[in-house]
Design brief:
The structure holds two protein chains of two kinds. By secondary structure, chain A is α/β, with parallel strands linked by helices. Chain A is built from ten helices and ten strands. In chain A, β7, α7 and β8 form a beta-alpha-beta unit. The two termini of chain A are 21 Å apart. The relative contact order of chain A is 0.18. In chain B, α1 packs across α11 and α7 packs antiparallel against α8. Chain B is flat and about 85 Å long. In chain B, 38% of the residues are buried. Classes of the chains: A alpha/beta, B mainly alpha. At the A-B interface, α2, α3 and α6 of A face α7 and α8 of B.
């Protein structure tokens, strides 16, 4: 088992000071009750996700901090997407998936018996690898979430606000009624982000949001992420190490452990401030990965 | 003797032998012949019917009641109205039931459970059960038997019983087509909706169904056109050819295939022509329905 991951608890982790000289963030009024900056939004303890009894990722212990961008990096098959999808219970859609250990969101156990996954996803939104706009107008794409959640208020204003925050308003304000399928891939992905923002979540999970996009669109989305972290906590899975280094405050490096009989399981190797991961990692595997020796 | 040139050193491309070309040609001719046979029989049949039947078509023919004595003044009014009734009632039955069944099988059923697998296999099988068997089912369970209420206690073979029997007949087809349409909606759409905090039901109702409605509608219309062309089940549930008033849901009824069957049984030539005219009417109804199906598919299909 991995020893480097188990020593971080909310008490011992030096919250904000570890965030690599990044500007301090203001805690959201509706969240950080104790007023402390750098409060953990997710507390993971010995988390293991299995498919049909076979573990895909295990031994994950980490605190993901509020109003930060946390990056999950690692080679293919290391379970980083699997772990991400258990943070808003998207894994529930796969019948054979099961989660062990503790996944705490603020102070609630996300996998407690009385937790409704639908309520979890209202607070914890998700942006997917491939842009997945609905086959409707741009306006309807944004309005869908607020409508099904029964949000009060002027829908035109909600849509405009979400599109502005998604840095898309100026590009689409004259064609809100046109089908979203007519947008470019980068615009579609920003629409998906805006759609997530429209329901005013607490956390945005991003599963390789830029892997299908060109560098300019990627740049636009990274810029957007840096703006959004003022208000939201973002957790991003990425294959792109430069992206992790550019946008994230903290980085978790996952690796694949090859077991006997060809079995593989993902492990969290190191979780620290991004600057440290990329300049002075404490684990040799992390160093090899971030310097491009494997992966 | 010089050593034979190997294929690699040779600079020219080998010519096709005449044998290969002949084979190619024969194969194409065989395919063409099969197509020709199919089209020929269909074409001859249609032309024959059209020659006999089309001159008969007039407003009077569509709006007159049938006559056993005088084929010339005979019309298809009750049969046409009966068929339209059957179509609407059948649709009212199969649309909600078929779509609901398809949603269950696609979105809720766990395919690993044995009972779901049995249901699935049996729906495939039901789609190929002969229509006459459904007719007997309709007679035994809907006209008479446990669901005798359709005859309002009288056990009469009423129009609603015919519509339900036809509905049972085409339900498996509707379910299969609706499932395919639902499956064509990418799972990324469902995930996108669920990730916004929509419930499963909201996701199905507001994303999956609108995304699959074109395919479902097309399937329903094609199923209906099969239903209204059926004769055997209607004979078994007691449709009649000669009805001298307009049918309604609770009355005995006629339908176009029944009228065709009945007229074709008469030995006199005039009635053969009457049958041809009725066939033309039925084909026209089917053609209109299929055109509507194609139009709807092209107009509303979502390209993923």
């Amino acid at each position: 088992m991995d020893s480097t991951t188990s020593d971080s608890t909310p008490e011992t982790r030096p919250g904000v000071s570890a965030s690599a000289g990044l500007p301090e963030v203001t805690p959201r009024t509706d969240a950080a009750q104790d007023g402390k900056v750098g409060k953990a939004i997710f507390t993971l303890r010995e988390v293991r996700v299995s498919y049909g009894g076979i573990p895909a990722v295990e031994n994950v212990t980490a605190d993901l901090i509020q109003n930060e961008i946390t990056a999950f990096i690692g080679p293919s098959g290391c379970g980083k997407s699997t772990l991400l999808r258990c943070l808003n219970r998207m894994n529930d859609l796969i019948a054979s998936a099961s989660v062990d250990g503790k996944v705490m969101y603020h102070d609630q156990d996300l996998y407690a018996a009385d937790i409704d996954p639908v309520q979890v996803r209202k607070r914890i939104g998700m942006v997917f690898q491939k842009p997945n706009p609905f086959p409707k107008s741009i306006y309807e794409n944004i309005a869908f979430g607020p409508k099904v959640l029964g949000m009060k208020g002027n829908m035109d204003e909600i849509v405009e606000r979400a599109l502005r925050r998604g840095a898309l308003w100026d590009e689409v304000k004259d064609r809100l009624k046109t089908n979203a399928f007519g947008m470019s891939g980068g615009q579609q992905q920003r629409l998906c982000i805006a759609r997530t923002i429209a329901v005013d979540p607490d956390v945005i999970l991003m599963d390789e949001p830029c892997s299908a996009l060109d560098p300019i669109s990627t740049g636009a989305i990274e810029e957007l992420m840096l703006e959004l972290k003022e208000k939201y906590s973002i957790i991003i899975v990425t294959h792109n190490m430069q992206q992790a280094a550019r946008v994230s405050d903290r980085t978790a490096f996952f690796n694949v452990d090859k077991l006997e009989a060809g079995k593989r399981v993902g492990k969290l190797v190191e979780f620290d401030a991004t600057e440290k991961i990329f300049t002075a990692p404490s684990d040799s595997r992390t160093e090899q990965y971030v310097t491009g020796k494997f992966g | 003797m010089p050593v034979a040139e190997s294929a690699i050193t040779r600079k020219t491309v080998e010519r096709a032998t005449s044998g290969q070309r002949t084979k190619d040609l024969l194969f194409r001719l065989a395919l063409l012949f099969c197509l020709f046979v199919t089209v020929l029989f269909l074409g001859v049949l249609l032309i024959d019917v059209a020659i006999d039947g089309v001159p008969l078509i007039s407003w009077d023919f569509l709006t007159s009641f049938p006559s056993r004595l005088n084929a010339e003044s005979s019309g298809v009014r009750p049969a046409l109205i009966g068929t339209l009734y059957l179509m609407v009632l059948c649709a009212a039955f199969i649309v909600p039931v078929g779509i609901a069944a398809a949603i269950y099988l696609e979105e809720y059923a766990d395919p690993n459970r044995w009972y779901n697998r049995i249901i699935e296999v049996n729906i495939q099988n039901l789609a190929s059960v002969p229509s006459v068997v459904y007719g007997i089912l309709g007679l035994a369970f809907i006209v008479r038997g446990p669901i005798d209420i359709w005859g309002l206690g009288t056990g009469d073979p009423i129009l609603l019983a015919g519509a339900l029997t036809l509905g049972l007949l085409v339900l498996p087809v509707v379910i299969i087509v609706a499932r395919e349409a639902i499956r064509a909606v990418p799972s990324s759409i469902r995930e996108g909706s669920l990730a916004l905090g929509a419930t499963k039901w909201q996701t199905i109702w507001k994303q999956v169904l609108p995304g699959s409605i074109a395919g479902i509608t097309t399937g329903v219309i094609l199923a209906l056109s099969r239903a209204i062309g059926e004769t055997a089940p209607l004979i078994l549930v007691g449709a009649i050819a000669f009805r001298l008033s307009d049918p309604d849901i609770g009355s005995r009824f006629s339908a176009l295939p029944i009228a065709i069957f009945d007229a074709a049984e008469e030995p006199k030539d005039e009635f053969q022509i009457l049958a041809a005219g009725t066939i033309v009417v039925l084909l026209a109804v089917l053609l209109i329905m299929n055109s509507v199906a194609i139009y709807l598919r092209n107009r509303y299909e979502t390209k993923w």
